[in-house]
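INTERNAL AUDIT FORM
Audit reference: QA-55
Scope: verify that the stored structure record matches its stored sequence.
Auditor: D.O.
Record contents follow.
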Amino acid sequence: LDSSTGTTETDRILAAAFSPSGEYFSYTDDRKRIVLFRTDPVWERISVRFVTRRCTSLTFSACGTRILVADKSGDVFSYSVTSVQEEGHLELGHLSMLLHLAVSPGGEHVITCDRDEKIRVSLWEAPHVISAFCLGHTEFVSQLLVPPGLKKLLLSGSGDGTLRLWLYETGEEIQSWDISSIQRPEDAPEFTRFAVSRISCCLRGENVAVLCDSVPGIYLFSISSAPRLTHVQYISLSYVPVDLDFEDSSSLWVLSGVRDNPVERFQQRDGSWQPTTQDDYLKRLSETVREDLDQIGGSVAQENRFSGLYKAVCDNMASYLLKKEARLQSEKRKLVPGQAESAGKMQKT
């Protein structure tokens, strides 16, 4: 409830994150606000600040003292967590819409990706200094993840349907997986684009789960110390999941966004990931999420989120030839008969 207006906030949240310590939580919404909460000992809203552009991604610095937000104009601003009246500071900028950003575990680098297939690695202490570019995607880069416990590795997902593993300090691509070649849902049309919409990994970083826009399933991978990215399993679902996250190395929670079955839990048993039975804890959690879904209309499923980000292919050659022919015919009609005949012979020549 907004105490200033007495109305309930219904604005769509665009991005949210906890600080590394869990002491703070922040989100940004359609109203171009950055809202900061303290979570300990009780949840308390401590600041509301406004930005000039809608934000696309939000995270905290590794030390948890600053909030980083990326916006549609291609800029990254940072905001102080402790000095809540301090205005945002411009850290870096792209020439294209930013879609995601991440911070290296040690806090040395800020990694950003944009609509024009680029991944940029910048120094946190001097963001104008670019350490490397990770180049190879052929469509917009939608997701970034630095796996914890695995030094200098970066995972990226894109609208080109690939999941790629990088050494982000040098920009070297280690491996690429074409997700559409792994498993296609039975009812997926041939033209389905497997845009990566979510990448999550467990606390030690060895297990990775991937969601694709409008695809009713989960792609599971493992990362070895080699390093090597290996496909482990595809879990087919009856719904398009909204989000997922690991609880530990052997437990995966999935938010379906469907009222009848809002939350599912998968656990690793006998070498594969399998859904768990409905215990008391899962029932209570599902009921709580179901009540929240009822308040917002019964479903939060979002499909085709990235359809407007793909490159538009424009073939104007046919229209050009038609206009040229019309222009030539018009010029012929303006000429006297003798001139038209001479012009025709010259054109043939």
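Auditor finding: record pair retrieved intact. The first helix runs from residue 179 to 182.
Action required: none
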